[in-house]
C-alpha cells in the first residue's frame, strides 16, 4: 500500500497499511485466479495480471497479481490383481500475491513483485510469510510524489525502480504501456472503440492474455481524458462472473478469448473488441453500426498517429548494447516517457477537436448548456454521433467541469491551440453569420485541401466555420492561407506540430531501505531522507521553483510521518511561494488541529507559521461546488421581470440587465407587468428563424468584394421598388446597400455615419400612397427612398437606432455603442415579428435607446481620446476598474504593431472580487476574460522582467501570475493587512529585481524577486499607507514621506494649514526629481499642491482645477502630469475628467470629459497612451493619446 499526504490526513498509520475497506475480499480469490485454480503436473512460468476495483462512489483501487506455482505431493492407492499398491506423485498448485494501491502503478508494482520472486525461489516455505511481510514493509516506506515533473527512484535488489508522478492534479499517473492499443489496433479501429465509449455502449474486451485486458482498457479510458467513464467497469471477469455481461446498463468489461463464442451467442448488442487480432464487431454481426467520430477530427488523429515511433528496438539500432540491466531499463523508461507524452498529446487533441465548440454554447453564470444550438452547429452527418454523446453520463460529467471552469489539460490545450486565426474566426462566429464569411474563402481553401488530402472537401460539408478552418489549418501549410487574410503575420504565429518534447523530469533517489524494520531503523531512514531532501531544496532554491515546491512537499510529508509537525507546516507554508497548486489543504488542517499547546506557542513565535495558523483557524467553510447542468427550456407560466431577466440571460441573447428590462417593457402586458409564455415562445421562435434566415443569405462574389472582412447581413427585406431600381434592401453592422434584381449587383446606399436624416414617407402609386422609407445622406446617393409598405416603420426605427449608435460610437470612440445599437435593432425586429397587434411598432420603439438618449449623452470628446473598451462585457452588470497595468511584449510594442515579436503587449485589468481580465494591447482584443486571484478586491498591480505580474489584494496576499501560462500559482503571505502598493526598483537591471510592497498598517517589505524572500522589513508611523513610489533611489510613501531603502526617514510633508485648507491626507502624489517637484492631490479638494522636494514644510504653489471636485489618481507621463478628477455632482450623474497639467508653467493644459462615473485608476502605455478606468456605474476604460 503506497501512502501520500492525503492518506495521512484520512486516518492513522495503522489504517494506511491495512487492506482498503472498499474492496470486496470475497471476490478477490476469483480475480486472482480468473481462469480457475489449477493443479498441474508441470511447473509453469510465473504470470502477472492486473486488476481494477471500483466502489459504489466511483473510487478506484488498483491491483497487481503475481501467480506462482509450488510443488505438492499426491499419494494415490490402487489395487492390482488383488494387491494394494501406492504411488507418490509430484504436482504443482497455483498461488498468488496481490499488491493493491490507490494509484495505477502497474509497472512499478510488477517490478516490485518480480524482485520478491527472486527471493521466493530460494527461500524455504516456512520463511515465506516473513519474506512477504518484509517486502510489504519496504513498500510502505515509499511516498507517492506530488503532481509535477519529479519522479522517485528506489532500489529493490536487483532493480532500480522509478515511481512516476502525475502530470497534474487532474490527471492519473501513467505507469502502464500506453502504446499497447496502437500495437494491437489500426487507427481506424482505435477510433471505432473510442466512439463506442463516448456513446456509452456495452463494450467487452477479449484476449487470451489476462494481463492485456486491464492494460488496454485502462489505455482507452486514458485516451478519453478529461472525460471520465461513469458506468460499471470490470476489466477482468473471472470465469464465474460471466453473468455480469447480462447487465442492462452500459459497461466496460474484459473476458478471456475462450469465452468469445459463448458470449456472442448469449448476449445482444455488445461491442466485442478482440485485442489479439485487432477487430471490433458486435455480438450480432461483424460490423459496428454506431455513428463514427466526426471526420475532421478523425483525419487529424490518423495523420498524427503516423508520426509515432512505437518500437523501442528501432530507436536503439544506432546505440551501443547495454551491459547493465538498470541502464537498459533507464533507456527504455526515457523512450517510453517521450512516446507516452506524444500519445497523450495526440489523443487529447482528438478530444479537443471533437468538443472544442462546447464552451461557446455554455452559459456559465446560469449553468446552462444550449444543446439544441450546439447540435445545429454540427455538420449534418455528425449530428447523430453528437446527439448520442450528449445524452451520456460521461459527457454530463464533462459539462460540469467546463461550467466549473476547470483548468485541466483539455482547457490548456484548447487555449494553446487557439491561434490568432482561430481567434479571428471565432470573433466572427459571434455574429452567427458564418456562412457569409465562409463563402469568401471556400473556393481557394477547398482546392488546396483537395490537393493536399486527395479528398474532395467542400466548406458546405461543415456547419461550423471554426471546424472547417481547424481542419484546413491542421492539414495545410501556412503559405496556402496567405492570400486570404490581411496582415498575415499577425494571424499565424503558431506551429502546427503539437508533438513537442515533454518537460524535463527530475529523478530523486530515495535512501536504501533499512535492513531491519524496527521503529528506530525506520526513523533513521526517514531522517536520512529528510537530510537528502534538505540538500535538494538548497540546490533548487534559485533555479526551478516548480521543482523546489515538490521537494518542500515531500519533506513536509516525511516530517509529518516523523511527528515533526512544526517543520512539516513550515515546509507546506513554503509551497505558497513556489507552487500553490499542490498545497495539501486537508493535511495542513489536520496538522494544525493536532498541535499540542507547547507546539502552538512555538508556532506563534514564527511569523510564517503564525500566519498559516491564523488562515487555517479562520478558514471559511468550503462552499460545495455547484454541479447542476441545466438545459434551456421555454417557460410554461407568465414571467415577472426577474424571471424574464433570468430566462433571457439563460438563453444567452443579451446579458445586459438594463437592455433586458427595456425588452420586458416592450413585451409585457398591462399592470401588473408580465410576459405570457406564448408570447415568449413566439419571440424565441421568431428570433431563431430570423437568425437562421440571415445565416443562409447568399451573396455573390461581386457583392462580397464591397464588404469588409467581418461584415454580415443582419436584415434583408423582400424585393421592393426603390428610387434606384428594384431590389432587396440589406442592412449590415456598417451600412445599408441594395441587392438589385436580375443580375445581382451591389449598390451602396450609405454608411450609417453618413446619414443625415431618416423618416417614413409615402409614395404615390395609382390611386393610393404606399408607405416608404426615406433616407438623406451625405454620400453619392443624396436621397434614397424604398417602398417598404408595412415594414417601413420598422426599418425606420432600426436604421435610426443604428445611425444613433454609429454617431455615439464615433463621438465617444467606443465601438460597444454600435454593438449595442445592433442588438437593439434586432430586438426591435423580433418584437414586431411576435407582437401581432397594432401596438407592435410602439412596443419596438421602447428599445430605441440610442435614438432617444443620444441628445442626453452629449459630451465634448477631444481628439486625444482614441478608443474605449469594456472589460465587463461578459458580465451582466459593469464592475469597477480598480487597477490597470500595461506590460510590454517581447519584440513587439504599441509603436510597432507589424513587428514579428513573440508576444504582444498586454493590458491587465482588475475588476471586483479578485477578477483580472487581460487584453492584447496591440489590438485591444480580450485574451483572458477571467484570471481569479482570491475573492477580495485588488488594490495594485506590478509587472516584472521575469515574466511575472504581482497583484496586491485586500486579503493581505500578493498573488503572482506567470504571464506565459496566465496562471496564478504563487502567493506571498508576509503582510498582515491589505496590500496597498507595489513598486519595483527600475534602476536594478539584474535578473533578480528589488521589489517593495506596502500594506495599509504602514508595513513596508523589501523582496528579492527571484527567491521571493523578504530582505528587509520596516514600519512607517501613519494612520494609513495607500501607495508607494521609488524615485532616484528613495522611497516615497503616500503619507507623504521620503525614505531611504533601509527605511530611514529622510523628509516628511507637513500638511497645509490655514483657512483655505482642510486637508489631512492625500489621495495621490507624483514626484519629479529632476525638477525637485512633488505634486499632491486630495479627493475632496479642487486644487493641486506643489512642493519643493528639498523643503516639505509648505507648498510652493497651488494649481486650481476647473470644474473639479477632487483628485482620485495621478500619473506622470513624459513631462506631464495626468490627473483623474471627480466632476462636480449633477443630479442623477457624476461626470469625471482627465486633466493634464504642465509642471513647467504650473498651468492646466487640457481638461477632457472622460467617464460618466469617477476615475478609479490610471496607467501609462509606453508614454504614448494613458488609460483611465472608471467606477461601476460605467465600468469602462478610455484610451488617450499622449501629445
TrEMBL record:
Keyword check for ATP-binding: no
GO biological process: regulation of Rab protein signal transduction
PROSITE patterns, A to Z: DENN (PS50211)
Gene: LOC114477775
Keywords noted in UniProt: Guanine-nucleotide releasing factor
Entry superkingdom: Eukaryota
Upper taxonomic lineage: Eukaryota, Metazoa, Chordata, Craniata, Vertebrata
GO MF annotation terms: guanyl-nucleotide exchange factor activity
Cellular component, GO annotation: cytoplasmic vesicle
Name of the protein in question: DENN domain-containing protein 3-like
Domain (UDENN) ranges: 1-409
Annotated source species: Gouania willdenowi
InterPro entries: cDENN_dom, dDENN_dom, DENN_C, DENN_Domain_GEFs, Quinoprotein_ADH-like_sf, TPR_DENND3, Tripartite_DENN, WD40/YVTN_repeat-like_dom_sf
